[in-house]
Amino acid sequence: MHWMRLKVRVVIGTWFLAILPCLNETSPPKTSKHELEVVISQYKESISWSDEYTSVRTIYCKAEDPAYCAPGSVLLPNVGREGHTFLHHIVENYDNLATWTVFTQAEEPSDGYNGQAGGHMLRGATLADYVIHPHAHDPASDDPEVLFLITSKFHMPGLGHSLRTRFQKNRVEQTAQQTAQQKAQDKGSRPPVCPSSSGDDKWAPWSGTRLAKFLSGKCSTGPGKVYSLGLTFWADYVQLPLPVNEIFYYAQGARFAASRDRIRGRPKEHYEKLLHAMAAHIDPCLGYFVEYFWWYLIGLPTGNPCPTQPDDGNLFTPVPLVGKLPCLPNTSLSKDELEIVLSQYDESAQWSDECKSVRTIYCKAETLENCAPDALHLPNVGREGHTFLHHIVENYDKLAKWTVFSQAEEPTEGYDGKQGGHLLTGATFADYVNHPNTYDQASDDPEVLFLITSKVHLYGLGKSLRSIFRTGWDQKIHNQGSRPAVCPGSESYDQWSAWKSTPLINFLSDKCSTDKDKVLWLGLRFWKEYVQLQVPFNQILHYAQGSRFAASRDRIRQRPKEEYEKVLQAMAWHKDPCLGYFVEYFWYYLIGRPANNPCPTDPADRGLFTAVESEQPPHSSEL
User: Fold this and answer.
1) pTM of the model
2) Buried b (16+ CB within 10 A) or exposed e, 475-511
3) pLDDT of residue 157
């Protein structure tokens, strides 16, 4: 047997004394699974190395052929990797967990890791260190309730990764003389949970590509989507404040041990939810985030297991987010910092449930059953424009630092008739949420975010759509992690489409129940009464179709409350007022007092349309 190479610390403790016979080959262990359990996740590996633990081990085997499974194994479907196995054990035994449980893969624990070689053991450590930790820990530095020997750290925004030098396989395989020296140094001492800042045991240089490539392959997506998946996982399952600089620490290979009390720091339902999510695939992308976040998932720890260097977070440029992540997954955020305002009729708002702590829903459905449970009820007048103005007016003196305004329909790409959720291809709702922290200093306005989808020629009522806004646009133009620019640029796939002179006139004439020649006067009257700014160059205005935008408290307050009240009152007389469409077209100009257009105007655009003429302005009731 191999226990002669295990370094057992001399510790006084009745439980520790009880398991000492487990560390030799002649006596059976005297402890029970009520006190100690070793949980092993097996596929086809030999587990003879763990025979000393026969009386306290539980083996879960996922091999398709049971002949590969150890006698007495519990058979499980081959899904979810070892994370699914460990979660299954926790859920099924939540009410009768052992006092101390060790979780490990079935591969024999051996030093280091490099590709497929090495058993994920930190050099100088043994499995016995995990077994005896409750009575052998260092009271000055160790947590008696859990043991993770940290081998890796990663910076989630930039997907950078660093290995502990003591863990690297190429550091383990050194000359015989060096190895002898290391063994002499290691004799009788378990390596600390975290490396030091110098010497043989420290953090290796950061790699900016290794983890990004690995996870992009495993998750079948681009780096920006990986970042979103990680943040979504954190928001859904970890639900703790993000660590300093978003640097996370983990034990590669998912070997750890924890007390019953530490595991029960979270309710059983927490683990059940994650177990269910892991059961859908043999090698789920989700499984890797479980491995990286085990220390944070077991119980409710505070802080990080290792100290974070202040400069670590500046080593990598954050990967721009791609995906459906609605909110910053930080439970410390309050509505004073961030508020998400949704205008609901009868659409489902479940897509935004991750944002509940900072979300305000206003519902205008006639039947309350169609409203979200936490919605505030408003009369069904004035479309979403009335909703957003109501929020601004009612909260003018206590607006959040950053507010995102959106219809309640789930944000999906494009728009064509009734299809699509008014989102630019390549954009996400998270872009609006994160803008104050991720905007491009060279081109973006930090105080506001409108992703412009359309432009209108005010005097001729012509309209042009942005090409990447149209539903069904070729998905190959996705920017692999970069948010589309506020305005179309020089890229061939992101341009303004050809101007059309009749659809907008016909649409507004119908919505406003007036002649086509009066529609111009309605727009001009709205501009004069409510916008009160100089008409932009060439009378071409830019807007975000669907009325999704975000703005700072300071930008909104550039206009006095009374000006928003004036528009709000005008919007309150009709369920679908003509005025509501001009509010949608002019939001960029109504929020604060911008000095310029959000997008550059092509001088050649002027003259494309003959101005709509009308001798008499419409009566105010037509607004």
Assistant:
1) 0.56
2) eeebbebbbbbbbbeeeeebebeebeeeebbeebbee
3) 80
